[in-house]
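ugh ok fine here u go
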Amino acid sequence: MKFTWYIAAKYFRGRNRSSRFLSFIKIMAIGGVAVGSAGLLISLSIAHGFKSTINDKIVGFAPHITIHSFNESFIQRADTLVTYIEALPGVSEVQPVVTGQIMIQASGDVSGALIKGVAAEGDITELHTYIDRGEYQLRETDTGLPGIIIGNTLARHLDAEIGSRITVYALDGLPSPFNTPEIIQFTLTGIYQTGMAGFDDNFALVENTHVRRLFGISPRQATLLEIKSADPNQIHQLHEEIQQQAQFPLITESIYQRYANIFAWVNLQEETIPLVIGIMIIVAAFNLIGTVLMMVLERISDIAILKTMGAKSREIKQIFILEGFYVAFAGLLLGISISLLFYWLQSSFGIIPLSEENYYMSTAPVEPHLLDFVVVSMVTLLLCVIASWLPARTAANTDPVDVLSFGK
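structure:
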């Protein structure tokens, strides 16, 4: 082992009784680095978890790209437009959708909602993966009524359970003896839960033909077209291509535009939280200045002896820089262990619960990234080595003659 590494390791272990206070200071420095690095890694994993969870929920529930009419009228010849868009590269699926505002009733309770009509075999979103009770079934059931799927919050408000009879009212304009609402009854076959209030309390999903009947829409018309990208990472590029080809009055909108406020909120968390928590590492690193300086003062006589034995100032400086590195490395290993333990506990037991109404999820999500561990480790070690340089320089400039002359 190289001379400087051997001496630094021996000083780091420091098992002499006379160095108990120094050992305590060293343990505190290691703890500071551990808490700082663990705090940063945990905050990064939670920020990544939030972003991935929100993205998965929105991208899974909502269409990647929508096309609607500028004047809010129906899209004419929607079937022809669907055929054209399906041929575009990068498009996975396209579906014409009919939507409208309705009143929905079950067990005497009534609420407003947005009804969405899709193909009987299902729509292009991943809504079926969020079914909490019942099943994804829109066709006619054993009761003789077609199936309907609603969100958990809406079902709770209506006091509806699987198998309940749901009555839907659609009215165009003000009600009067000459303008009565269209009424269709359904059987509740599925209740979904995404954890997002804008979805769970607002949407009712049925087969397209029933919505067309409610609002008097022909089979060739649609309220909007929903498009699914073959690659979710290429949504921006596909949207730009479709937008360039769409002609007025058709308007295109990507999922990132429709839910821009939610994505902005998630990105803000991911960008700011690590910066705030990262200050902990900076504070912990510069605490090493005092720790290593105390190590220098404790070993001042050893430094004088080493110099009289021929050790160079550069080697003395390396010894104490290495001792600061050992402290940082020990603290970093402890911090990484704490963060991995937190990841396991949170994933297995959900020790940090959240308000689903405010955060769109019931527990804090965690998603550690290997790159975070590499970057945090490198930055922590670099800061600690820089912080150790000043007291190490003081040790290197110690004059052995002055130390030995005064018996220090």
